[in-house]
Specification:
Shape: globular
Radius of gyration: 20 Å
Protein name: Mitochondrial oxaloacetate carrier protein
Largest sheet: none
Number of helices: 10
CATH superfamily: Mitochondrial carrier domain
Organism: Coemansia helicoidea
Helix content: over 70%
Number of strands: 0
CATH topology: Mitochondrial carrier fold
Distance between the termini: 24 Å
């Protein structure tokens, strides 16, 4: 039996039970499982993206300036050669926890929040067509904000673990032994405030990304099924989900990258006495200092790595999600 089939068989009883008990619980389970599956494959590019975003932090670029990481391919090679597979998969543990908190929550809440908005704004009952872009954007943004708030401590530890390197260090080095050690260290130094440092940047990042991702995926999936019906593509076709996911990944990356850079830097900065950060007072200050020192396009540092990570992650997550939902529907 293949690993994929084994995973589906193992997940089937849980999926069927969750689907029977609660649509929200099932979608939360499916979203968590799908996003964890996706991040297993895309985490190495998240490591590359994090280091590219921190490289040259608050340093005005000059011709010939030394950079340990020159581009995505070279950074991937350098990390893999000097730190091995473990280096490329740094932060995977807290990455799993963040995916459960963020994507399980936002995918689970998206349908009920969208239903509530359509009912409140248009008197539209559940099950009716939902193609109002502003309402879908609002629902996606709200879900992203809630998920990011819940998952912020794990994103904090993940970012700090991924930036750590004994070979080519960029940004402040926190050197945690693992997720638990990171959470414990942050708690001892700053308590709850320390664990939630940068949460406003994370909520803004996820709110923008989620509103674009969920609304765009809905729109593109419906469009692909409509325009390519003559090719045999339907709303439930894997090919439809794949095409819609690819377009969605690009849209999300363009919208979210500036907030992703700010979020990465807010999380990774060194702690100051009193619980703040040594470089940035808040999200707005980080945004201002970054642009003022490095220029506007510094907000798109790591864009290619971000897209190469986010594109496949979006594709894998939505394809896995649709397959898990289909499996649950058959078994319910």
């Amino acid at each position: 039996m293949s690993a994929s089939n084994a995973t589906h068989v193992a997940a089937a009883p849980v999926a069927a039970a969750a689907a029977a008990q609660s649509p929200f619980l099932f979608t939360w389970f499916a979203g968590s499982l799908a996003s964890c599956g996706a991040v297993t494959f895309t985490n190495p590019l998240e490591v590359v993206k994090t280091r590219l975003q921190l490289q040259g932090e608050l340093v005005k670029a000059t011709p010939g300036m030394a950079k340990p990481y020159r581009n995505v391919a070279q950074a991937f090679w350098v990390i893999g050669k000097n730190e091995g597979v473990r280096g490329l998969q740094k932060g995977l543990g807290p990455g799993y926890m963040y995916q459960i908190m963020l994507n399980g929550t936002r995918l689970g809440l998206y349908a009920p929040i969208k239903d509530a908005l359509y009912w409140t704004a248009a008197g539209q009952p559940r099950g009716a067509p939902q193609h109002n872009i502003p309402l879908n954007v609002a629902a996606g943004g709200a879900c992203g904000v809630v998920g990011a708030a819940l998952g912020s401590p794990f994103f904090l530890v993940k970012t700090r673990m991924q930036s750590a390197s004994k070979f080519a260090a960029v940004g402040h080095q926190h050197n945690y032994r693992g997720m638990v050690d990171g959470l414990r260290s942050i708690w001892r130094a700053g308590g709850v405030r320390g664990l939630y440092r940068g949460v406003d940047a994370a909520m803004l990042r996820a709110g923008v990304g989620s509103s674009v991702q969920l609304a765009t995926y809905d729109l593109l999936k419906a469009s692909v099924a409509r325009e390519l019906a003559h090719r045999g593509l339907t709303d439930g076709s894997t090919a439809t989900h794949l095409l819609a996911s690819m377009g969605t990944g690009l849209c999300v990356c363009v919208a979210m990258n500036p907030f992703d850079v700010v979020s990465t830097r807010m999380y990774n900065q060194k702690s100051a006495a009193g619980g703040g950060g040594t470089l940035y007072r808040n999200t707005a200050h980080c945004l201002y200092k970054t642009v003022a020192t490095e220029g506007f396009f510094s907000l798109y540092k790591g864009f290619l790595a971000h897209f190469l990570r986010l594109g496949p992650h979006t594709v894998l997550m939505f394809v896995f999600l649709e397959q898990i939902k289909a499996l649950g529907a058959r078994l319910a």
